[in-house]
Sequence to fold (416 residues):
Amino acid sequence: MSNLPTTTGRRLHLAYMVSHPIQYQSPLLRRVAQEPDIDLTVFYGSAYSVRGYKDEGFGVAVKWDVPLLDGIRHEFLPLIRDTNAASPLSPLNYGIFSRLRRGRFDALWVHGYSTANSLHAILAAKLLGIPVLLRAEPWLGDRPRSAATLASKRAFFAMLRSLVSATLPIGTLNSQYWRHYLGTQFPQFLVPYAVDNTYFQQRSQAAAATRAELQRELNLDPARPVILFASKLQTRKLCMDLVEAYAQLSPGDGREPHPYLLIVGDGEERAALEARARQLGWPSIRFLGFRNQSELPRFFDLSSVFVLPSRYEPWGLIVNEAMNAARPVIVSTDVGSYPDLVTDGVTGFTFPPGDVPALTAALRRVLASPETVATMGRNALERVSQWGFEQDVQGLRAALATVTGKIAAGPCASST
Fold:
């Protein structure tokens, strides 16, 4: 935790606006709240993630087993509309203008720009003379857009540019996106998309003590490697490509490959994936269903390599989680984290989305020997350890110092 003095002698009042408590964001917000000179208040639009809800991607009821609100000063804004899901018009709230005015906030940090709530908050801050920091996930390689849509986006960002003081890019591809739409001179401060590295490293280390128990539970031979997929079973995640690449690892004559393939998650593609697995006829492909966040480190620990073959994946924070377990990762170049976290032959491999032969080749290279797995895993852990909450706080402090002049920037903080 930083012990830097403010430049004014009083704490800086920071408001944060987001649709609902998000399991990946809550640990970061708790970390920011520990800064001695930042007084953080979080404004949520809905409490649906705290109550429990049906996740359309997983296709199952979800109630997160990690604390979402502990250690965070927060308020739920009065509701106009709440569909128990995040969308451009839900949740829809009122009251942010009066709350920002009463709180005498020095800055507003907004997550996302494409909802009525976020635009309402940005406009309210502009009217009150409060600088706005914007953080969001998109990148230029996202799904195709029509010419009319792209023209509308350019017009929208011309307007947004006058309302926002700086952006907080989550990584390289996101930074390129902001430069494209807001200009090369628009202020940016890197606030990396990160998970609680300490939490996941500790959970993964603890999981090693029960690895043999989980291997017995799943009837796994400890001598065989494990390929792990863990995400929503949606079409765009391309888990079927992983199944096909796995099939290419067969030594022939219909024999199953030497590694196991464990698929953790649920969703619309599960039936098709199970049907393909039955067609192959190999018990080495296992479907383990949805697992909550605190359970995942046990599966990372069990694995030899983690694979995320997705299309249109803005970041893929589960890649960070797997790397915290000292496991190499294989991701498609449509996974937004790849330029920052995945170096071919060092922390894992990348491949073009939809290219099954390239994915097969990457699997063969990682699984060439236990020594290869171990070396790449160590490299992955070292890389992700430098991409965490401390770097987030440094970037946030640099942004706040620039737009308010009321706080000292953290050590090594710099714009992108």
